[in-house]
Design a protein that fits this description.
- By secondary structure, the protein is α/β, with parallel strands linked by helices.
- It has eleven helices and 23 strands.
- Strand 7 and strand 8 form a beta hairpin.
- The protein is globular.
Length: 403
């Protein structure tokens, strides 16, 4: 008699979870547990929010054959019993668990009024709510975007290109992940779009039609968009799994939990060797593939390979007519090379389309998508942590796209 296929549960159907599920479906019975019935193309949420692009995908085209999609939310992981408990009251057992819950908006309760009056766009429901608010707003009303990381910059660009009055406020410099060359190009584009940029200004309070800064100045704001910072779901920590201070699950370089070799993690919610890579689909996809390969190796009784992913740069869309591309070394160190304009926007959009194409290809033919390698080396952890690629503040690259 043939042995039953191992059961693999994937928590989270984002870039990392979806590609991991497809790849591991070659040798396992896979269940993806996700709170929504559709894939969210998170890299498009800022465009969806302003009405420029859809942000949903069909799991029937993105998951490998035979993969089960369970629309539910995991409330607790019970590692000793190899079981996950669901919000609907049921539970699902597993032989291996891939933890890919992603990230979400930062906890905003520390700034008075933000929870009540500001609009994050880190999740589909956030972007949908902002889109509805935008539809009732006069064109001459001031929209304030708080946070000038990549998501803040892109949101400001999309809004301003539509003729909206946009103000961009950040606690440090605009685009802290950018080199001076890329930052100058971004400034120029936003200036041409008449975006008011206020740097080194910390927001201390948000109201229904205004916001206050640390210097006691009060600015009118019909709608305030909050893109400053990020957070991760509390599921791992609440389940007693070891995490870093932010809640990212602690894993080794094979993406295996330091607590349990049946738990593998990938994407924004994971911290390999306590040193997480930049949050982006550019890292989520290879991490998802690596997580699947680790599970497949364990099923085969082989030693898993370590994480080896390479970056190529940062792409920023600043409306539908221009963008900025900044080149990086494979280890994510920025190069002094950047260009702007329509070609840069095309390169950025090509990267987004390539990510979705990768998901579709892996669903059709699991095991065929290759990784961009040559960037991460476990022996260099200390050097990478101190290096320029990791010097950005929390609001710099946390809700990014092809980053």
């Amino acid at each position: 008699m043939s042995q039953p296929r191992p059961r693999v549960v994937v928590i989270g159907g984002g870039y990392a979870g979806t590609v991991a599920a497809s790849r591991v479906s070659r040798k396992a019975a896979v269940t993806v547990i996700n709170p929504r019935p559709h894939f969210v193309e998170r890299t498009r949420l800022h465009q969806f929010a302003v009405g420029n692009h859809p942000a949903c995908g069909d799991y029937r085209k993105l998951l490998g054959k035979g993969t089960e999609l369970l629309v539910d939310t995991v409330t607790r992981i019970e590692s000793p019993a190899r079981t996950v408990h669901l919000a609907t009251g049921g539970s699902v057992g597993y032989d291996y668990l891939i933890y890919a819950v992603g990230s979400t908006a930062t906890r905003r309760a520390t700034v008075p009024g933000v929870e009540q009056f500001a609009f994050p766009i880190a999740e589909f429901e956030h972007a949908e709510r902002f889109r509805q608010a935008l539809s009732t707003l006069d064109n001459d009303a001031v929209i304030t975007v708080v946070g000038a990381g990549l998501t803040g910059l892109e949101t400001a660009g999309e809004l301003a290109e539509q003729g909206r009055r946009v103000r961009l406020v950040c606690s440090g410099v605009m685009g802290p992940a950018l080199t001076e060359k890329a930052r100058r190009a971004t400034y120029e584009r936003l200036s041409n779009l008449h975006v008011e940029v206020i740097e080194n200004a910390r927001v201390v309070r948000v109201g229904p039609d205004e916001l206050a800064l640390e210097d006691d100045s009060v600015l009118p704001s019909a709608v305030t968009v909050w893109t400053a910072g990020f957070g991760v779901p509390e599921l791992a920590r609440a389940s007693g799994v070891s995490t870093d201070t932010l809640g990212r699950i602690l894993i080794d370089e094979t993406l295996t939990s330091i607590d349990d070799d049946r738990v593998i993690a990938a994407g924004d919610c994971a911290a390999p060797s306590g040193d997480p890579v930049r949050m982006a689909c550019q890292s989520a996809l290879p991490m998802g593939l690596t997580a699947a390969d680790t599970v497949l190796s364990r099923i085969a009784g082989e030693e898993p390979a370590t994480l080896d992913l390479g970056f190529n740069g940062i792409g920023i869309s600043l409306g539908r007519r221009s963008g900025v591309v900044q080149f990086h070394e494979r280890d994510d160190t920025p190069k002094d090379r950047a260009f702007a304009g329509r070609i840069a926007l095309s390169v950025k959009d090509l990267g987004l389309k390539a990510a979705m194409a990768g998901l579709r290809v892996e669903a059709l033919r699991p095991g065929t998508v290759a990784l961009l390698r040559g960037g991460r080396h476990p022996s260099d952890t200390a050097a990478r942590t101190a290096g320029p690629a990791h010097a950005a503040t929390e609001e710099s690259t946390r809700f990014s796209d092809t980053r």
